[in-house]
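Thread: Newbie trying to understand structure tokens

Hi all, I'm a second-year student working on a class project, and my supervisor (Dr. K.) asked me to get a predicted structure for one chain before our next meeting. I've only ever worked with sequences, so writing a 3D structure as a token string is new to me. If someone could post the tokens and maybe explain what I'm looking at, I'd be very grateful. Here's the chain:
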Amino acid sequence: MAVESTRWGILYCPKTGASKKRKRWEKIKAVLDEKGVSYDVVHSESSDSVDRLVTMLIQNGYKTIVIVGGDSALNDAVNCLMKEEKRVRDEIVLGVIPNGVMNDFARFWELDEDNDEQTIDWLLKRRVRKIDLGCIRYTNKEGDKCHRYFLNCVNIGMTADIMNLRRQTRRLFGSRTLSFISSLLVMLFHRMDYKMLLRINSDVIDRKLMTVCVGNGPGYGQTPSAVPYNGQLDVSVVYNPEATQLVTGLWLLVTGRFLNHRSVHPFRTHEVVVEEAKKAMVGIDGRLMKTPVGEFRIQVEQEVINFLIPD
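---
Reply by user tm_fold:
Sure, no problem. This is what the structure looks like when written as tokens:
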């Protein structure tokens, strides 16, 4: 039997390590039922199950797929969608109810994890916008050509380390602020520069760098002017600052003025070529990925996903 075109397929992704997972879903369910939303729900057991469950929802004919989760769950969902033919993908609309360890992409749209009622009201209004995706194309250790899409950003270097630590410490502390501060304290004992060779537009950057952020979205504060609908990527290249400058830079990051730091060099482009990034970790939408082997490219694909946005 075909699914009604207005019926939502909901994928609930509980926070890893969080207690009261059932209570969180019951709270969202109560709002959905109160609003009279027609939906079916599936629950993911782990990040590995998101791809399988989103594929199942697509194959069962759901035209509105809502992810109750964070940046990583959204990343898995869009990568699953991008495996489909364009004609199939164009019929599907993706929405999010934030429920992750990191919800920066949802926060960009002013979707608040503490206000499910407002989020669901916005989703019901069905305001759809075509949004861009970034794409990193690389070779893995087995020599296979691979690619991965992203909504928010790719981090290369120290910030990928911090994002990985932040995810782990958030599970321990629960607080975004405490997890971020504890991650920074741990990072004081890590290396802070990496030899990189980048090509951005006509610029060639061949030197030691602290971190590089390539943002299709706000990039956890590092590409604050980036928007996922202008067909371009924002890039922040951070040279290795002195210790006093590092403290200033962290303060500017927290207060949303990251681009004002003199060690930060911003670019706007359609493509970044990373010819070399020795021993630098790479993160994509807040999750550590397997480090590419050799040269890799980061590009933007314009207007490829239908996304439900607020009023």
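A couple of things are worth pointing out once you decode it. The two ends are 34 Å apart (CA to CA). The longest helix spans residues 158-173. Feel free to ask follow-ups in this thread.
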